[in-house]
Structure formats: C-alpha cells, structure tokens
Inverse folding.
C-alpha cells in the first residue's frame, strides 16, 4: 500500500535539487544521438574542470554550471566545431584553469618536458651502470 | 573536566618529550629516558582516548566534538569522527609518532646504544615539533560556552566503515616512516663510526609502515569507489597524490634495502630515500592542511597552521638534506650493476618508481609554481597524470616479473632465458584464454592483462618450486600487485556505462544483462530517510541474477542529500548503479556501470597487506640474531 | 661530479619550499579564479531588457561612461548583502550600473528591485545563463568594471564588501 507519507517523500525528493557530494554527471536528456559526437563530448567534458567543485571535471559534477557547460559543448559539437575550437571557447572565457589537461604553452613546457627529462636521466643512469659493470 | 584532562595530557606529552630530548642530549640517563619514552606514550594515548571518549558520550562542551559530531550518529561513526577531523587526526599523528618512538626504544641494547639513542634524539625532535603544532594551532580540547544541545553533525558520506579505519591505517604508514627518517639522520650524524648495521634496523620499520600505508591507500580508494558514485577509485586528487608519493618512495626503499643488505651497495641512495619518504609525508600534510590548494579532501583552511607546518617542514628537510649533502660521501660505493642481475633489476625498478614519484610531485605542485611565478592559474588534472604515469609504469611491472628469478651478480643470459620460458608460456596461454572469453581488444588492455598474468605466473611458479630462497612475503605481495594490475586494467579499459531516464517497469540493457526498474520504496535508517529503487537484473538466459537497491538519502539533521550507490560484485565484474533525480511522472535518471574485474583490486590489496605482514614477521625473526 | 650531486636534493627542496612560503605569505584565495577577460573588450551578446520590450545590443547602447556590470539574482543571498554598495555606485555621476539578472523569474526580480531599490540603469535578463558564460562568470554575484572604451578592467567574484568597495572606487578614480 502506498502510504500518503511515502508519496510526500517522493514529492519531497523530486522537488529539491540534489546538491550532493555524490555526483551524477551527464543527464540522459543531454546525450547526443550521434555516438561519435557524444564520445567526443564526454572526452572534452572529462577534460574540463568544474569551477565550483573541488577538483572534478564537468563530466562528473552535478552542479548547474557544469550542466550548462556540458550543454554548450554538445551544442558546439552539433554545429560542427572541432575540439580545438571548443577548448578555445572555454579558455577565452575562463582561462587555462578550466582545462584539466594543460595545453602545451610557454608556461607548461616544463610540465610536459620534465617527465621525458626524468626518463632520459633514469635511462642514462641505468645504461651507465650496465656499461661500468662490464668493465669490472 | 575532559577539557582539563585533555589539555593536561597534551602538556604532559610535551613535558615528557622535552625530558627525553634533554636526557638524550646531556646525560643519557637510562632511567630518565625510559620514563620519558613510556610516559610520553601513555600521555599521548590518554589524550587521544579522552577525545574519543568525549565523542562517544557526545560531550558538546568540547568545541571539537560540537563541530564534528551529533547525538544521532551511530556509535562507530562517533568514534571515527574523533580522528576524522583535523585536530583529532593530529592527536592520532602524535600517538603513532610516540608509538614508534617506543618501538625504537625497545630495540636498545648494549651493542647498538649509540645508534638507537641518536635515533631517539631525532625522533623526539619530530615529536616535539608536532606536539607544539597541535597545542598552538590545532588543540582539540577547546571549550565552547554555553554548551550547545547538539553538534553540527558530520557529513554523512564520511559515515562509513572503510573511511573509519582508513585514517589509522594510513597514519601508521605515513607516520611510521618517521622512524626510518630518524634512523637515516642518525646514521648520517654518526657516519664517522659506521660499524653498526643500520639497515637491518631500518628494514622492519620500512616493511611495517609500507604495509599499513598500502592498506590505508587501498581502503581510501575502496571508499571512493563505492561512496562517490563516479564508478572510479582514483582521481589524482592532491591528497591522494600526497599518500601515493610516500608509497612509491617507500616501495623503492624497501627494495633497495635488500641490495644494501646483500651487496653493501646503494647505501647513500637508501639513506636519501629514508629521509625523503617521511619528508614527503610531511610535505603532503602541509599541502593538505595549510589551505594552499583546494581538493576534495582538504581539511578546514587556516593559514596559521600552514605557516607553522611550513616552518617545521623546512627545518626537518633542510637539516636532514644538509646532513645528506655533507655526510653521505662515506656511504658512496663504486659498485655497478648490469641489467641481467637481481640488483640491476631492483635498481631499474627503483629508478622508474622515482620517475613516477617525480612526475606525480611535479603535476601536483606545478599549478602552485606557476601561480607564484606568473600569477596565472592553471589546472593539472587526471588526464595529465594518466598520460604521463601509465606509460612509465608498464616497464616497471614487466621487470617486476623477472627480478625475483634473477640471481645476484651477473646472470648467464641463456640460463636466464631458460628460466623464463615457462613463465612466458603460461602468460601467453592465460592471456589468450582471457581474450578468447572477452573478445575485446585494445592495446593498453592487452598490455595490462599480459603484464598482470606475467607477474602472477612468475610468482605461482616460484611458489610451486618451493624455493626457500624466495620469501613467502615477497611472493604474496607480488601476486597481489599482479592481481591489482588485472583489476585496474579490466575496470579502466573495459568499463561500460549506461545513463537513461527510467520509469517503473522500464528496462535497460548493459553487457549481457537486462535490468528492469521494478519499484520505488521508502526506507528509514538511523539518522536518515530514503527513497530506494528496486532493480531486477536478468542474464541473457532470462534467469534472475540479483536485485540492485540504490538509494537517495536525506539526513534531516545536517540537511544533506546523498546518493547511495548499490554494487553487486562477483569475481568477473561489478554491477554498479546510481539513482539520480526524478519523480514518478517523468521517471528517474539512472546510471549503471559494468566494471570488469574490479574486485581483484581489493583482493590484490589484501594480498599486499598479508604479504607485508608475513615479510615483517619473517624479518623480525631473522633480525633477532644480529640486532 | 658525484659529490656535487649530493647537494641537489637540498637545493631542490629549498626552492620548492621557498615557493610555498611565498604563496602562503601573499594575500591569495586558492578558490578564486582570475578572470581571463581583463584588458579585453566586452564580449558580444544579446539580451532582453527587464523593463523594456527591446533587445539590448552591446556596445551600441552604451554611453561613453565607466560601466559596472553586476550579475545578480533574487535567490542569491550575497547579492542582497552587497546591494547597498551597488546602490552607492549607481549614485556616482560617472558610473553607469547595469544589472544582469541570472537564471531568475522576471516577476520576482521586479518585486525584489521594488523592495530593495533599483540601482541599475538597465536590467538585462540572462534566463539560461549563457550571457554569464560569455563573461566567464562562475558564481553569483560577480561585478565587472569596464572603462569608457569598453575594456574590462576588473572582475570581482563574490559579493562587494567594504574592502572591495573601496578598491573599486580607487580603480574608478584611476581609470578617469
């Protein structure tokens, strides 16, 4: 038997926006028909920071701003824009902070280059060791 | 009353630590040292217990209890609330520090007194630093007046069994490395007199701390997986990175210690790692508690705390690294390793692990560096770490498979190849079987599965051969890593997600399952009310597999809504379902994940834990001979 | 060579901790995001007036004055808190204050402005939040200071407090 209290409960939950820490991500009505475009949308969203959350992407976030941005990204994909154009749209307005994968710019050269540099040094040490060990 | 007692025990702890320091510096009177060590341990534990007790009885006259608890909280979460907040967790830091102080002291005997006493000196300086930090900036025993009727409650998503044990395990790991730090520094201070086998003392502490750190991290990931509803378990969040980096260094340290013991080589390197592991723990604490960056995990922001910890970090780091710069010369050696030797493989693995640690560190602090230099804000998130770390980890794992079967010193390449042929065969066989069943190919997926099976088969063969020279602890831990890799690969590469709006009696298909939205129920918990959805899962033969019951909860006291994920687990896959917003008219948003092989991550972590415990016990037994 | 390397960890450590010290000491808010539109021209956008049945098109409708653009909403409490300061701005001759009503109900907005007083020369409607995104807005309220050439000079994320009020006034004096 569906009690009156239960119906009230449903109304209660449905009328309040769920501001939770537990995120929900993409709404079913946002999902694009074209699977390729939708996949691109998801990847771009995963790379876009939710600005009002702590360290989440808009793909994972429940916040209204995240939802707005997700919608805009999909709209632009439907308009035929490529990934770079969409990222530019976001960074023109919000700066580089909104990208979770930093683009290669003057101030991120060290970020992208240093891992290679570390690897090179590591390999150098390993080969140096090996070479020297043969001399013993 | 509790406030008086709590403050008293805190100040007693400070007093005992100062007395330990003074007697170590001046007269080395054993009785005073002994009383200080024991007294310190008792007072710090008492302090912690007083706080816990205050939570259990909901004593809201204490500000800390008021801020973080509530009468309606289930008992076990009142307990975990005590150490889940900043101030309480600092008490836990101090308890673990003083516990390890005690353990170091227990090792004291006639032969090693110079070394152990010096170690205790370093350890007590760390302790004094942290007790002062707690008293000055993070004292949990502050009063609130007038006494409120009830507390501010606590985030319900933090009311969870995994999250309850996560801090103690993690801190025993993190903070346990303080003993290793103290030993490294003591060794460097006493470098002119190297006749003691400092590495033998270090090893059990490294093993123990590493074991608990691994479990703490695994529990944190497990919690994130089933609580946050994102279907994932690792997000490269700064606080996660702050625990991962000491783990990487600790693992490197663990393995190079073996080389030190067997070949008397890499000593300077091990001393450096001993310093850096704990130093990274302290830097991590700074990043998380100073408010310098934001993260899902950060505690309440407070710049005065930041400044204090910064000063403590600079002090500990500069002193230890200066010692290293000036005194490690005598530990350098001219041994060089070839690729095809056990020590060579360990060196290679070490180097790769340091590289990974360096990349994680770089990515974590880079936004801060850029902000300081250019006043620009950038983000470095998951995509960066995934694309840089994963390619490097793969060779690490490959080598991890072979290293145990290599011999010390140079190996005959032909002989070595002969040894590995059974492993290669088994690996290829298991991988082929796997792909026959799953029929899904992707390069990373293939690599991950092969690498995972490579480790598992290598270790199973070692196990079968019953070779006594291989420690059981190592085999089990390595098996654990192999299982974890299988789990990580499966759940990342072949994860499937479906999002849909569902009305009652609607059906959705995922993998080979049909899931029907049966009904919506009302559910009451201890401090919440919830809407629960019943979802029936059928396989492709129309047999019912299980019922999934995700919930949307409302906690009236704290006015918080949460979404409780429901997971059905088996050895092959997790079915993971989240109930979103909705109503009876328009339907409910439902998100379902099919996560293959996830459970092997947690099973592998259990293997890691037991492997570590066995290794620690084994090592303690062996060491009793010469320490 | 080897001996010189030994000092490397200390050096790297000190450099990094120096950076942290600097960041702790300066006045910064880790949550705040700097605007990318500073010293750039106002974004192009279209909007409807609240009180008129026309469309507002930048930049033609602007007189050559200093403009304060204030994103606000009736459901936002900090907007109510800062309202007095916005009114003060509107009383200054040289400033035109424009309000952009974010994701709101026009009827509620009219009531709100009637109750608290209307400091805005124009009130524009941003029902979907698109205009806010054009301006790089990530929360409500936000206030932009634009000079008479249409260049954005300053962005305040969050409510205008006494401190910020003084800061903006100083800035306006400089711009003139």
């Amino acid at each position: 038997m569906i009690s009156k209290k239960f119906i009230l409960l449903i109304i209660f939950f449905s009328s309040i926006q769920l501001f939770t820490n537990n995120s929900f991500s993409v709404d079913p009505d946002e999902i694009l028909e074209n699977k390729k475009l939708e996949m691109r949308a998801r990847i771009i969203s995963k790379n876009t920071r939710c600005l009002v959350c702590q360290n989440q992407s808009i793909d994972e976030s429940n916040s209204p701003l995240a939802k707005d941005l997700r919608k805009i990204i999909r709209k632009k994909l439907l308009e035929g824009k490529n990934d770079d154009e969409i990222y530019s749209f976001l960074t023109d307005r919000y700066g580089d902070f909104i990208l979770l994968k930093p683009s290669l710019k003057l101030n991120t050269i060290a970020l992208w280059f240093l891992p290679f540099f570390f690897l090179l040094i590591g390999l150098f040490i390993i080969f140096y060791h090996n070479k020297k060990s043969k001399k013993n | 009353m509790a406030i008086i007692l709590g403050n008293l025990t805190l100040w007693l702890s400070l007093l005992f630590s100062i007395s330990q320091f003074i007697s170590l510096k001046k007269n080395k009177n054993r009785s005073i040292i002994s009383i200080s060590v024991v007294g310190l341990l008792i007072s710090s534990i008492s302090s912690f217990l007083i706080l816990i007790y205050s939570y259990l009885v909901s004593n809201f006259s204490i500000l800390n209890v008021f801020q973080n608890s509530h009468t309606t909280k289930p008992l076990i979460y009142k307990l975990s609330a005590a150490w889940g907040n900043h101030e309480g967790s600092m008490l836990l830091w101090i308890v673990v520090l003083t516990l390890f102080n005690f353990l170091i002291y227990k090792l004291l005997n006639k032969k090693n007194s110079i070394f152990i006493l010096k170690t205790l000196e370093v350890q007590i300086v760390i302790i004094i630093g942290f007790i002062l930090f707690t008293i000055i900036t993070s004292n949990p025993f502050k009063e609130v007046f007038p006494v409120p009727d009830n507390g501010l409650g606590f985030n319900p998503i933090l009311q969870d069994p995994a999250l309850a044990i996560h801090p103690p395990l993690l801190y025993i790991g993190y903070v346990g490395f303080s003993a290793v730090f103290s030993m490294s520094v003591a060794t460097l201070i006493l470098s002119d007199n190297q006749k003691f086998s400092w590495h033998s003392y270090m090893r059990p502490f490294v093993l123990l701390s590493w074991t608990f750190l691994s479990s703490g991290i695994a529990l944190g990931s497990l919690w994130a997986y089933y609580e946050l509803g994102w279907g994932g378990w690792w997000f490269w969040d700064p606080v996660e990175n702050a625990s991962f980096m000491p783990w990487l260094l600790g693992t490197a340290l663990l393995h190079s210690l073996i080389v030190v013991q067997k070949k008397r080589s890499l000593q300077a390197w091990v001393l450096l790692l001993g310093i850096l592991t704990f130093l990274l723990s302290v830097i991590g604490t700074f990043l998380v508690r100073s408010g310098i960056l934001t993260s899902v995990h950060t505690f309440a922001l407070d710049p005065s705390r930041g400044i204090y910890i910064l000063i403590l970090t600079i002090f500990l780091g500069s002193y230890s690294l200066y010692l290293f710069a000036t005194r490690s010369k005598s530990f350098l050696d001219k041994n060089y390793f070839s690729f095809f030797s056990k020590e060579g493989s360990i060196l290679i693995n070490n180097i790769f692990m340091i590289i990974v640690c360096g990349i994680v560190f770089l990515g974590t602090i880079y936004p801060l560096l850029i902000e300081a230099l250019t006043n620009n804000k950038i983000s470095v998130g998951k995509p960066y770490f995934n694309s840089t770390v994963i390619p490097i980890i793969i060779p690490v794992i490959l080598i991890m498979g072979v290293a145990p079967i290599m011999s010390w010193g140079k190996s005959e390449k032909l002989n070595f190849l002969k040894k590995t042929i059974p492993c290669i065969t088994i690996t290829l066989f298991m991988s082929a079987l796997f792909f026959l069943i799953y029929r899904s190919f992707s390069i990373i997926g293939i690599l991950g599965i092969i690498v995972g099976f490579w480790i598992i088969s290598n270790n199973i063969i070692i196990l079968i051969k019953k070779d006594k020279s291989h420690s059981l602890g190592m085999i089990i831990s390595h098996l654990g890593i192999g299982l974890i890799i299988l789990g990580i690969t499966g759940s990342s590469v072949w994860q499937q997600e479906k999002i849909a709006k569902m009305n009652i009696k609607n059906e959705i298909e995922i993998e080979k399952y049909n899931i029907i939205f049966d009904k919506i129920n009302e559910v009451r918990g201890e401090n919440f009310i919830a809407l629960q959805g019943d979802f029936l899962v059928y396989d492709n033969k129309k047999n019912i597999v299980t019922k999934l019951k995700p919930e949307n909860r409302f906690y009236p006291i704290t006015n918080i809504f949460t979404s409780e994920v429901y997971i059905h687990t088996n050895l092959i896959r997790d079915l993971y379902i989240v109930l979103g917003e909705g109503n009876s008219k328009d339907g409910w948003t439902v998100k379902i994940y099919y996560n293959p092989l996830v459970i092997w991550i947690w099973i592998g972590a259990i293997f890691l834990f037991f492997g570590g415990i066995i290794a620690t016990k084994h090592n303690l037994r062996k060491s009793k001979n010469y320490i | 060579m080897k001996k010189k390397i030994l000092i490397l960890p200390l050096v790297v450590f000190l450099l990094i901790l120096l950076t942290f010290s600097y960041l702790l000491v300066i006045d910064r808010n880790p949550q705040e995001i700097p605007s990318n539109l500073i010293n750039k021209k106002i974004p192009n956008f279209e909007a409807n007036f609240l009180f008129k049945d026309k469309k507002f098109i930048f930049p033609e409708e602007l007189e050559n004055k200093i403009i304060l653009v204030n994103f606000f909403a009736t459901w936002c409490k900090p907007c109510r808190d800062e309202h007095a300061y916005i009114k003060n701005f509107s009383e200054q001759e040289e400033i035109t204050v424009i309000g952009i009503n974010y994701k709101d109900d026009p009827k509620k907005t009219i009531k709100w402005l009637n109750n608290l007083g209307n400091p805005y020369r124009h009130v524009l409607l941003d029902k979907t939040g698109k205009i806010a995104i054009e301006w790089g807005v990530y929360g409500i309220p936000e206030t932009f200071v634009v000079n008479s050439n249409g260049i954005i000079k300053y962005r305040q994320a969050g409510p205008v407090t006494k401190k910020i009020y003084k800061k903006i006034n100083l800035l306006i004096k400089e711009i003139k």
